[in-house]
Amino acid sequence: MDTKKILKKHNIRPKKNLGQNFLINNKIAQRQVKHADIQPDEKILEIGGGVGTLTQELIKTPGKITVIEKDPKLHKILKKRFGEKITLIQGDAIQTDYGETDKVVANLPYQISSEITFKILKKPFKKAILMYQKEFAERMTAKPGTKEYGRLTVGVDLYSNAEILEKIPQTAFYPQPKVMSALVKLTPKNPKYTPKNQEFFLDFTKAIFSQRRKKLKNAMKNTRHMLNPKPTKKTLKQTIKKLDKTTEKRPEKLTPSQIADCSNKLYTEIQKTKKQ
What we know:
Layout: H1 3-9, E1 22-23, H2 26-36, E2 43-47, H3 55-58, E3 64-69, H4 72-82, E4 87-90, E5 103-107, H5 113-121, E6 127-133, H6 134-140, H7 151-159, E7 160-168, E8 173-174, E9 181-188, H8 198-209, H9 216-222, H10 233-243, H11 256-275
Parallel strand pairs: 2-3, 2-5, 3-4, 5-6
Antiparallel strand pairs: 1-8, 6-9, 7-9
Helix pairs in contact: 5-7, 8-11, 10-11
């Protein structure tokens, strides 16, 4: 059934505060599901079911489909359309414990893209096929030294390989967003580096990229208050000395593994100080 007709029938106006831009191109939904390569009995999660444009393609697969939808009106429509064919959860995807899942296939509400992505990445999964704003997708897949490269790139790289599958025009959505979108495939990986503490690593990355164009040693000095545990000035000085030439580079020039090495050395020095 046509997405616009469903919205009109139920007198639903897209809510900007929920980032509601509904996919109206069925062929794109079909390609998105095809990219997921869903196998029998795999647990599939869709976040933000809307009126079911993507859901109606997912139920054609042999997977077990769970859909999370926050909007009560849309939840009601999904329940009426798909009934027992899906497991339907009404709630905020960031707050909801959706249990184990094999694959995530979703057109994410753009304003929660970062939060929901890291929630997905931190749990076991086989593959995710997700729709993002094009600019966000380019930041996820950027290379060191480019203007798009930043803490999002480094954070995503810790957990997965990210690949842009295709770019999607504004006309594929209603209402039309101001920017293009992109389909991204996330595949879990065993990283070449291991942070001693993942949360500290992510905080460290966020801190140094807030001053991406300064030398790393200056960025570290200026942002130590952003870290938990917070290093003393003495601890920071010792770490910078151990890192040597690396701290002369800008954060935007460092690879994810170099950033992890810096984070690990600082975290180790902080733990040493605690024991003294």
